């Protein structure tokens, strides 16, 4: 077992996989570790849908923006915030509160991170796929999801064909605040922009000339799935 700190700090998204399968025993261990994540009030409000059907994977690859690694990875799982089983236990559950939606997203994300770390401890690699929300209603139909089951993201898992460089994270001094929130330190940001520019220019694939600030300026002015709020309301989420 690798050092947990080194393991976590060496994370990188893997989008190229070998043909080697992931065993059922490995999958079981990954899922058991995922379930061991903290869960608010012991609600355990999540589900994983393992997609082994190649045609269904192809649908998700297209839906997600032609992400071919969904087809090429040994495993593709969809992580869902899931309160359907809670409705079956408590038919008058008041799931319209936004807090339940927040809890479902947090619980699911924490279990997914446990899954990724466990997979990486087995020398597997993976990448999360938020693109399944590009057409969330189609994703729901493809998986026959009942009400109050929300597909949040996919996860490709498999043995890496090659290991890409680690993408530098923003310095910890920017994200850790002492006693109160502090303005962004522009000097630290500028140093980070230079680090990111150097990373993009020197990495093995998809070289570019961007800084982190340039990337943010490109991304944050775009519409971001504007249909999501109406969809959530239609499904009974976040109406209170």
From TrEMBL:
**Keywords linked to the UniProt accession:** Flavoprotein, FMN, NADP, Oxidoreductase
Which GO molecular function terms does the record list?
Answer: oxidoreductase activity
Pfam families cross-referenced by the UniProt entry: Nitroreductase
Note the SUPFAM superfamilies from the entry. FMN-dependent nitroreductase-like
Flavoprotein as UniProt keyword? yes
Does the record carry Oxidoreductase as a key word?
Answer: yes
Could you tell me the superkingdom of the organism this chain comes from? Bacteria
InterPro entries in alphabetical order: Flavin_OxRdtase_Frp, Nitroreductase, Nitroreductase-like
Which family does the entry's similarity section mention? Belongs to the flavin oxidoreductase frp family.
Protein name (record): Oxygen-insensitive NADPH nitroreductase
């Amino acid at each position: 077992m690798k050092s947990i700190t080194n393991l976590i700090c060496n994370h990188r998204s893997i989008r190229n996989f070998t043909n080697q399968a992931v065993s059922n025993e490995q999958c079981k261990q990954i899922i058991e570790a995922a379930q061991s994540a903290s869960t608010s009030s012991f609600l355990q409000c999540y589900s994983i849908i393992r997609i082994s059907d190649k045609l269904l994977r192809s649908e998700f690859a297209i839906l997600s923006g032609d992400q071919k690694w969904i087809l090429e990875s040994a495993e593709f799982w969809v992580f869902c915030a899931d309160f359907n089983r809670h409705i079956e236990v408590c038919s008058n559950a008041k799931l319209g509160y936004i807090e339940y939606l927040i809890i479902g997203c947090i619980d699911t994300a924490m279990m997914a991170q446990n899954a990724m770390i466990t997979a990486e401890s087995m020398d597997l690699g993976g990448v999360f796929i938020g693109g399944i929300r590009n057409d969330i209603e189609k994703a729901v139909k493809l998986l026959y999801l009942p009400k109050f089951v929300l597909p949040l993201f996919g996860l490709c898992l498999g043995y890496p064909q090659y290991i890409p460089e680690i993408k530098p994270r923003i310095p910890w001094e920017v994200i850790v605040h002492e006693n109160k929130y502090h303005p962004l330190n522009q000097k630290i940001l500028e140093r980070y922009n230079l680090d990111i520019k150097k990373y993009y220019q020197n990495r093995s694939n998809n070289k570019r000339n961007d800084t982190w600030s340039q990337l943010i300026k490109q991304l944050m002015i775009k519409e971001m799935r504007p249909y999501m709020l109406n969809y959530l309301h239609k499904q009974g989420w976040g109406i209170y």
